[in-house]
Design a protein that fits this description.
The structure holds two protein chains of two kinds. Chain A contains 18 helices and 28 strands. Chain A is an alpha/beta fold. Chain A has three domains: about 5-265, ANL, N-terminal domain (Rossmann fold), CATH 3.40.50.12780; about 270-450, ANL, N-terminal domain (Rossmann fold, 3-Layer(aba) Sandwich), CATH 3.40.50.12780; about 460-569, GMP Synthetase, Chain A, domain 3, CATH 3.30.300.30. In chain A, the strands form six sheets. Chain A has a nine-stranded mixed sheet with strand order 2-1-11-10-12-13-14-15-16, with helices on both faces. Chain A has a five-stranded parallel sheet with strand order 4-3-5-6-7, sandwiched between helices. In chain A, strands 17, 18, 20, 21 and 22 form a five-stranded antiparallel sheet that branches. In chain A, helix 2 packs across helix 3 (about 75-85) and helix 4 (about 100-110) packs across helix 5 (about 120-125). Chain A is globular. The two termini of chain B are about 20 Å apart. In chain B, helix 1 (about 10-20) crosses helix 4. By secondary structure, chain B is mostly helical. Chain B is built from four helices and no strands. Helices cover about 50% and strands about 0% of the residues of chain B. Chain B has a single domain, classed as ACP-like (Non-ribosomal Peptide Synthetase Peptidyl Carrier Protein, Chain A). Classes of the chains: A alpha/beta, B mainly alpha. At the A-B interface, helix 9 of A face helix 3 of B.
Chain lengths: ~575, ~80
């Protein structure tokens, strides 16, 4: 891999990677069982630098911002590299957000340029508020030949006439503005510098080394911090190959393992659980004798790999299982949300090393990583290189808020000094997660201090963000909480949102209100829905600006009502 | 000869039948307006598994994003119907 300490910017490091491994394949685009394209590093560089030239010719200056809204595909990486090459700041947006949310974040980030796929652009065009939005240039990919793009340019036409010139940036310059969540009026745009990324990449790569022939299966969109690191920066600074699978269908993921002889894949817990379920079903269908043999081999593998992973040995012991994973899988990286130890244990037993980690966008991805030496599924591992962690105000059991300090921690939340001051205190990033560090230096997590949940898909949901979905319901006032914020419990899974309703005097939760709540709830994406509601009969405590004082309200509710008072929606 | 065009009701009915079989759920308890995540107790990847099964049955192909945000059988039927 490249010596990243020598570089000041992502553009320069990526360019050198393209030169160094010019004849290696860097990208393969797979759609279900079909392969659409493959590019060498040389071809990638050439294609992206035309885009960078077009950016430069369009007046895009160093430090200007460009957003990407695309699914999991090579043009995401081509656009991103072009933006870095032109000295720009990248704003990766989650394509799964609604068009209205996209517009909100585009406005908040002040992006001048947008790279977007046609179906997503069509949705944005139809969103209320589009007309007021001012984007300098929009580049649309996958547009049908006859489609009216409302003034946007086609990806195929966005080509500069002259060769682009790499615009060098300083380490402290902003590389990306990444929204860790937060629409609904309170976007959290993490400002991450070139140094943040170079440092994180250098810290994690020794655990997952890339070189020509190393293949990373990318199924999580690259706007996700894990894929940006594992499916872009790490392979591209090591000469590896990224296979973009343009679907999350489990059957095609399984097929890609064997077809492309995958070395690494990053997953969120939901995908890991799905793989586990599929394997369990297969194991259960085995004849009794074969099943007995498999169990015995798993027990041997378990005993021999407690201290460290031994991929060669595991492959020899559990040949058929490993064949289904392509035979060359070194690790599955799991992050984005908490993974249950039992799931990690299942894969460990069959000799597929799961490297679970813990991190957040504010820390530029990973804070800790379980390196399997020894196997500790009950923890999220030890701090990555260069990362310090401490437990703030620990209780009698040693559990307190996890704080992290490292060169990878973001500089600020975009245009929000108040939230920045609450989150970065004396140089420490206050994560809002509750944890304990054990005698061996492994971090164990026990829940959250802040009012938020993380889904198994790795989505951070801040309750305030979904409140506008319930605006106008026939109650005096309402708000949404994470259930664990009201009734703290030491759990990182199965988190729920609860809607607290303060009814008008004399009113009850009647059928019409119930129907309205269900209807509104259904409008939300499935992972954003509230699980139930609570009827509360007191005025919400508010500050001088009439904002709800959530800490006080949650405390009052938690004291007077049990979790069982929640009515399922 | 059987008509090639299906009505939305037929499409919905076939989807409900396939969902019931795939997830071993009583067919009589499934309605077109049901939230399939809630009713079947499935996650988004299991919903995609069902979608593949539906694609094979109806001979259509829907990109993942086309069903993003869809959570009831009726809307799913409409998306499939549009491609028939």
């Amino acid at each position: 891999m490249l010596d990243l300490a020598k570089y000041d910017s992502l553009g320069a490091a990526l360019r050198d990677g393209l030169w160094r491994w010019s004849e290696e394949v860097c990208l393969i685009e797979a759609d279900r069982d079909r392969e659409r394209s493959r590019l060498t590093y040389r071809q990638f560089g050439r294609a992206a630098e035309f885009v960078a030239a077009a950016l430069e010719e369009s007046g895009f200056a160093a430090g200007d911002r460009a957003a990407i809204i695309m699914t999991n595909q090579p043009k995401w990486l081509l656009s991103a590299y072009a933006v870095f090459f032109a000295g720009g700041v990248l704003v990766p947006l989650d394509y799964k957000l609604s068009a209205g949310e996209h517009l909100q974040l585009l406005a908040h980030s002040k992006a001048q340029i947008l790279f977007v796929e046609y179906p997503l652009w069509r949705a944005i065009l139809q969103a209320p508020g589009f007309r007021e939005h001012k984007l300098q240039t929009v580049v649309v990919s996958e547009a049908p030949p006859t489609a009216d793009l409302a003034g946007a340019m086609r990806w195929e036409e966005f080509r500069g006439a002259r060769a682009a010139v790499l615009r060098l940036r300083k380490q402290t310059d902003t590389a990306c503005i990444v929204y860790s969540s937060g629409t609904g009026g309170h976007p959290r745009g993490c400002v991450l510098t070139h140094d943040n990324y170079l440092e994180q990449c250098a810290a994690v790569t020794p655990v997952f080394p890339f070189s020509p022939g190393t293949r990373y299966l990318s199924i999580i969109p690259t706007n996700h911090a894990i894929d940006f690191m594992g499916g872009f920066l790490m392979p591209f600074t090591g000469g590896g190959t990224v296979i973009h699978l343009r679907t999350m269908r489990p059957e095609f993921i399984r097929e890609a393992f064997t077809k492309y002889k995958i070395t690494y894949m990053a997953v969120v817990p939901l995908i890991l659980k799905n793989l586990q379920r599929g394997l369990r079903e297969k194991f259960a269908a085995l004849p009794a004798a074969k099943r007995k043999m498999l169990d015995a081999l798993m027990a041997v593998n378990r005993a021999l790999t407690r201290g460290r992973p031994r991929p060669g040995l595991s492959r020899a012991l559990l040949k058929d299982v490993h064949k289904a994973f392509g035979g060359g899988l070194r690790a599955l990286l799991v992050g984005g949300a908490f993974t249950e130890p039992a799931t990690i244990e299942f894969f460990h037993d069959i000799g597929i090393p799961i490297y679970n980690g813990y991190g957040c966008t504010e820390a530029c991805t990973a804070i800790t990583l379980n390196d399997q030496r020894p196997f500790r599924p009950d923890t999220v591992g030890k701090p990555v290189r260069g990362m310090e962690i401490r437990i703030v105000a620990p209780d009698a059991d040693g559990i307190g808020e996890v704080a992290a300090r490292s060169k990878t921690v973001m500089s600020e939340y975009l245009d929000d000094p108040e939230m920045t001051a609450e989150t970065i205190v004396d140089g420490w990033l206050m994560t809002g997660d509750l944890g304990r560090v054990d005698a061996t230096g492994h971090l164990q997590l026990f829940g959250r201090k802040k009012n938020m949940i993380v889904t198994a898909e790795g989505k951070n949901i801040y309750p305030e963000d979904i409140e506008n979905n319930f605006e106008g319901i026939a109650v005096k006032e309402f708000c949404v909480f994470a259930a664990n914020y009201i009734w703290p419990q030491h759990s990182m899974t199965g988190e729920q949102l609860v809607l607290v309703l303060h009814l008008e005097p004399g009113h009850t939760v009647n059928d019409s209100l119930l129907q309205e709540l269900s209807r509104r709830n259904m409008r939300l994406l499935n992972y954003k829905r509230v699980s139930g509601f609570l009827a509360w009969d007191q005025d919400f405590p508010r500050n001088a600006a009439m904002k709800i004082r959530r800490v006080i309200l949650a405390g009052q509710i938690g004291k007077q009502l049990e979790r069982g008072a929640m009515v399922t929606l | 000869m059987e008509s090639i065009m299906k009505t939305i009701e037929q499409t919905t009915d076939e989807i409900l039948n396939l969902a019931a079989t795939h997830f071993k759920f009583p067919r009589t308890e499934l309605q077109a307006g049901d939230d399939f995540y809630k009713k079947l107790g499935i996650d988004s990847l299991q919903a995609l598994e069902l979608l593949t099964r539906l694609e094979n049955h109806f001979g259509v192909e829907l990109p993942d994003y086309e069903v993003q945000g869809v959570s009831d059988f009726h809307t799913l039927a409409a998306r499939i119907q549009a491609r028939l």
